[in-house]
């Protein structure tokens, strides 16, 4: 008999820090997540794992920090989430997907239907993804609603 467990956890897997265009230090973000009851986060700064590397060095218990980056590819923005950070990322979409998956990472189109924010558009319907971001706080409500309907 196979037992399956469902675990509900509050998570935010698309956060920016001062390592790119965010305002806060990664340690401040981790402390805030802990206070808000968010137990899993990924600091996914633009084209760098630096924010999540710094967050993992904070030494704050109670929040799991997933290494991540938001990579601007030739087709749009993609979140790469890993249990370790990648030293080299490729901006060619298919090369990024291959490198990420061969390293055990997840690839997720960021704000897929928000073209103004470099969303990947209907390519998000492809089967290459491990998930899709449905709600993005920086996206307009219509883009979020369309993502909810399509995915």
Question: How would you sum up this structure, described in words?
Answer:
With 151 residues, this protein is an alpha/beta fold. It has 4 helices and 6 strands. The strands form 2 sheets. The chain has a 3-stranded parallel beta sheet with strand order 1-2-3. Strands 4-5-6 form a 3-stranded antiparallel beta sheet. Helix 1 (26-36) links the parallel strand 1 and strand 2 (40-43). The termini are far apart.
Write down the oligomeric state.
single chain
Overall outline: globular
Radius of gyration: 15 Å
Class from secondary-structure proportions: alpha/beta
Q: What key phrases describe this protein's structure?
A:
18% strand, three-stranded parallel sheet, three-stranded antiparallel sheet, single chain, 6 strands, globular, alpha/beta, 151 residues, 4 helices
Write the layout of secondary structure elements.
Elements (H helix, E strand, L loop, with lengths): L10 E5 L10 H11 L3 E4 L6 H7 L7 E2 L1 E6 L4 E6 L10 H10 L3 E4 L31 H10 L1
Parallel strand pairs: 1-2, 2-3
Antiparallel strand pairs: 4-5, 5-6
Helix pairs in contact: 1-2
Overview in brief:
The chain is of the alpha/beta class and 151 residues long.
């Amino acid at each position: 008999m196979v037992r399956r467990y469902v675990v509900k956890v509050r998570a935010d897997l698309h956060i920016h820090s001062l390592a790119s265009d965010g305002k806060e230090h990664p340690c401040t973000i981790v402390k805030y997540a802990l206070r808000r009851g968010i137990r899993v986060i990924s600091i996914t700064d633009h084209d760098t794992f630096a924010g999540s590397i710094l967050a993992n060095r904070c030494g704050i218990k109670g929040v799991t920090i997933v290494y991540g980056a938001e990579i601007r590819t030739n087709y749009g923005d993609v979140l790469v989430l890993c249990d370790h950070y990648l030293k080299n990322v490729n901006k060619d979409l298919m090369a990024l997907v291959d490198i990420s998956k061969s390293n055990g990472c997840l690839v997720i189109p960021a704000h897929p239907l928000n073209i103004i924010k470099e969303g990947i558009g209907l390519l998000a319907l492809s089967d290459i993804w491990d998930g899709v971001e449905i709600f993005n706080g920086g996206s307009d409500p219509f883009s979020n609603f369309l993502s909810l309907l399509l995915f």
